[in-house]
Design brief:
The protein has 143 residues and is mainly β. 8% of the residues lie in helices and 36% in strands.
């Protein structure tokens, strides 16, 4: 039996994504942006459009923010998160996500958002699985 011992520091919990972040749900074709990310990117719901690109070499999904609509740009919309009763900015880009190899097709993931050279981007290597919400059983009302 060959046992390999871990010599890296052990971390008790899964790391959280701090700061501006982007979440991707392939099943919905939805990309949602945290409040900090929306501020960083200068979103106006319904007035901002995002062009999406992918760098296969670095595995980065790139966003370019614009005020001009085009068929290849996604309109920033609002989405009500029922559990928190808060609206978050989202874009729906299923066709683009479907053509990218690095996107997790099984689970939603959150990524830190980076900025540079007038572009905003996420790196698929930095993804953290989003916890699934646990449904609570409804209490029975006695009559």
């Amino acid at each position: 039996m060959a046992v390999v011992f871990f010599h890296d520091p052990i971390v008790a919990t899964k790391p959280k994504v701090e700061g501006p972040s982007v979440s991707i749900s392939f099943r919905r074709g939805q990309v949602s942006f945290s409040e900090k990310a929306a501020e960083m990117m200068g979103f106006e719901i319904g007035k901002t459009f995002i062009e999406v690109g992918f760098d296969d070499e670095t595995k980065q999904l790139v966003f370019v923010v614009s005020k001009e609509p085009a068929p290849y740009k996604a309109k920033v919309e609002k989405f009500l998160v029922q559990a928190r009763k808060v609206n978050v900015p989202v874009i729906y880009i299923w066709s683009a996500l479907n053509s990218i190899n690095g996107v997790s097709k099984e689970i939603a993931q959150r990524y830190p958002l980076h900025a540079g050279d007038g572009l905003f981007y996420i790196n698929f290597a930095e993804g953290v699985e989003k916890p699934k919400s646990k449904s609570k059983p409804k209490k029975k009302v006695e009559a």
